[in-house]
Amino acid sequence: xxxxxxxxxxxxxxxxxxxxxxxxxxxxxxxxxxxxxxxxxxxxxxxxxxxxxxxxxxxxxxxxxxxxxxxxxxxxxxxxxxxxxxxxxxxxxxxxxxxxxxxxxxxxxxxxxxxxxxxxxxxxxxxxxxxxxxxxxxxxxxxxxxxxxxxxxxxxxxxxxxxxxxxxxxxxxxxxxxxxxxxxxxxxxxxxxxxxxxxxxxxxxxxxxxxxxxxxxxxxxxxxxxxxxxxxxxxxxxxxxxxxxxxxxxxxxxxxxxxxxxxxxxxxxxxxxxxxxxxxxxxxxxxxxxxxxxxxxxxxxxxxxxxxxxxxxxxxxxxxxxxxxxxxxxxxxxxxxxxxxxxxxxxxxxxxxxxxxxxxxxxxxxxxxxxxxxxxxxxxxxxxxxxxxxxxxx
Length: 394
Description:
This protein is α+β, with helices and mostly antiparallel strands. It has 3 domains: about 10-90, Alpha-Beta Complex (Outer Surface Protein A, domain 3); about 100-280, Rossmann fold (3-Layer(aba) Sandwich), CATH 3.40.50; about 310-390, no CATH class. About 30% of the residues lie in helices and about 20% in strands. The chain contains 12 helices and 16 strands. The protein has helices at about 40-50, 55-65, 70-80, 110, 120-125, 145-155, 185-200, 225-245, 310-325, 365-370, 370-375, 385-390; strands at about 10, 15-20, 25-30, 35, 85-90, 100-105, 120, 135-140, 145, 160-165, 170-175, 215-220, 255-260, 275-280, 330-335, 345-350. Strands 7-6-8-10-11-13-14 form a 7-stranded mixed sheet, sandwiched between helices. A 3-stranded antiparallel sheet has the order 2-3-4, with no helix packed on it. Strands 1-5 form a two-stranded antiparallel ribbon. The two termini are about 50 Å apart.
């Protein structure tokens, strides 16, 4: 009996075993038979300790291939599966869910989504009661920055997922998908753009958000843009939202796609230019509140988990691998610890396209504000704006 890397093992209900430490073997009753397994009992206990009904065979393999040859690990797992100590967890049939959408806006994209409940911007903002929906698509034909920020605030306060689908006058902007309290919202993105402009202005000429409230943010889609473009974009968007609602990753989570160029029914869809621009960075919780190599039962989840880590050191290594794969670059560490300090200080340098625009984090540890005090080069706490919108950004 073999297994797939994505299979999830569990300890068999009808298996019992006893460790014979004096002879380095395991005596067990499994699959209706008495058996003797000639293996180190400590190794079996360690392997079974990682079988929790959640980890896949591949994840268990990754733990032990750090100490043993890969083929040896696979053979051991296959053996205890064949001998009935482990069994594959039966996957429950998934129930496909269709998200309830709310369309906010008017125009070509709103018309293409006419099968869903729709409100104009003014209707949505004037509503006192929250309507029932899972994800909102904000797709105005025309709107100001003030209207954009008002819609953003109301959706954020209602703790509703939402994303934008607008024509900016330069391109069709799709996303990012906003998850309140987990990703930067549209006000964060707009505020960061204003701060980027303010960095070049004198103190008495800096912009306030209120200065741009009456400026147009979205424009009508030009009449020369074919309906095939509208249909293509909305179909891709609906498919992505449905997948996300059913537990899969979203291409628009933390990304804005800018679609430029001509598009005709005879043009292959791959010719549509999609420029992915990260619009926020996930905040990092105090994932493990213990010494860096200490284990803990505490679990911190950011959306759909993609791996598990039992120590901070393991977490950092796995995150570095993920970053390297996503940005197609390299991750470098520079040790900046001062002699005599008990706390390690490390500068992380990442090559590749990790973040194009200035976008603030949505969560900051209190220690970040005290860093200068702790390291002895400042006599006061720093501010949020200084860290993420000033010279220290990046």
